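Possible regression after last week's pipeline update?

I re-ran a chain I had predicted before the update to compare outputs. Posting the input and the new output here so someone can diff against the archived version. Not blocking, just want to make sure nothing changed silently.
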Amino acid sequence: MLFKKIIFDNYKTYYGTQQVDLYIPPEVKEKEGKNIILIGGLNGAGKTTILKAIKDVLYGRREVSEEEYKKVFSNVINNTFYGEGGRECSVSLVLETDSGEEWTIKVKWFFNAYKMMTMDEREVTIKSPKMYMPKKNLVQNIEQYNRLIDKIMPYYASPFFIFDGEEVKEIIVRQEQAEMKEAIHKITGMNSYKQLLKDLNALKLDLEAKIIKAQRGSQVHALKTQLEEVQSSLLALETKKKDTRAKIIQYEEKINELRKKRNKIFSQNSRSREEIVKRQGKLISEIDQSKKNLDSLLKDSIVPIILKNNIINLKKQLKVEQDARNAKVVKQASLKPYRQFMESLLNIPISPALTSEQIEQINQIGEDIWINQHEIKVAPENEVKELHDISFKDYQVIQNYPVRDQKDISELINRISKLEQDFEATEVELRNAPEFKDTTEENEKIDSLTKMVGQLTLQMKSINNKIQRDTDIKTTLMNKLTRNSGNDGDMGKLKVQLENTTSVITALNRYITDVTTLKANFIKEEFSKMLLKLFRKQDEFGKIEFDINTFTVRLFNDKMQEVSINDRSAGEMQMISSALIWALIKVSDLELPVVIDTPLGRLDSHHRNQLINHYYNELSNQVIILSTDTEITQDYVNVMRANSYKQYMLDYNETKKYTLIRDGYFEFIGR
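New output (post-update):
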């Protein structure tokens, strides 16, 4: 599925009707390698609004009460439009499915005189290549609407395809939570297989019940008795299996508690002398790098900064002179036919001859009449003194010359000051730092409990073998009952259905085991591969890996002790989460657009370059990036020029308090 466009109608900062064309034809990605739509704007211009609007259209009513929904959406109408008396706003999302259908999903919100949202209205229009007229449906049932949306972009997949770049670390923070694991299982297809297996087992039980019910005659009494004994044995084994499983869960919970306790110690150790010294080394490196960046920025930008006012004044003067020249050229071109006519007319002898003053007066009066009759629009000639004589090419170069201010330099100086303050703070912290605490006791308890879980797992395997044995005996008895029942056609069909269902269950169990391992290993491989591309300091960690048993990311220090992943910096967490998203997208069967807000805000220059060069241009066939000016570097410019199909700029008018969408991207696109 691909997004084609998003249309705003007085939604939040977007006054009136405005739209963004997001479509990238598939052949463009194949032939030119361009898969990025770039949308830029300063903070508050409406970037995050685009991301939230997409979510609002697709999933706005999910997992919220009616009261919460009205509260959240009572502030989405544009303030200017509301002040003019408007009482409704809308967002329309147009997309194209893999079957060639064009869907237009429109959500409209209605408001009362107190700016409270009173109701919403959802409309889905589907246009098929085979349809003469599109099919329009007004949604009456929100559950039906949710099922319809899940066909094209499932709700469980949305955290991995539509996200805030600065908050993407939440995927790692929440990885232990059940809903996150559930989402990962769904996006990899695991839940579908498990649901199918559950349905097949229910079908098998139903068939077995029908066969037992269909038995007739005393000749099958002994078989039924044996069958009851086997079923009783199976019931006892299932109970034992359930109890064993409960013990395993109990021990695993204790292991998790111990891990949390150990992680707390790890967190305390992060404030120990050894860790503080490490942080000091990192701060020194960052201070040195920031100073180099400041020197480079001063070298490249000091002249434009110093001459900022002169450059602006020169541009204004050149514009005035150019406008004056253009006005003269327009007037001369418009009056050329008139002057040719007057020249021919006055060359004819007149008696008595006209004086030069009369000729000049006739010329002037005739010129005014000619302009009025032909409705020629001629700009008034202002007395402008031309100070410069430059070519049009030089004029364009000067007008496009960038104007720089001291904001970037101030930010770097402030950053250096902050880092130096942090370094001084670590000096104080170092004097009061605790000693490093050993986690051997916790590790030994974890190992002991893990061993007990292993023993119970072996017991579980033995119980499963016995269940399989009794199940085979049960199947044999069922077959004998079928043959001795005296029933004909119906019983024969039930037997065939049961045999087929049992075969499918056996094959599916084997398939689920194999494909789960296969997909988990694929995620692990893709995660590791992308991590190597993104990270600069591999030696800081003993190991970062994706655990194929728990479907979680685990981090180990240089002594191969597991450490809390939550203690890493925001930038490192973002890179780890990005690598996991990459792996999950690659393992899923979903070909969906990716929408990312402020993806580079908290990253240093190295990690920014790695994401730009090795990540976004291969992440999906359509990647929509919403960014601010603070994320822009020269490397970013070069790569985006090569990989972005379209660029848009969100201009917020401070006076009118609304945003306009225009083509282009800050000041470098097209230069």
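Follow-up from reviewer: compared with the archived run. The longest helix spans residues 221-269. Marking as no regression found.
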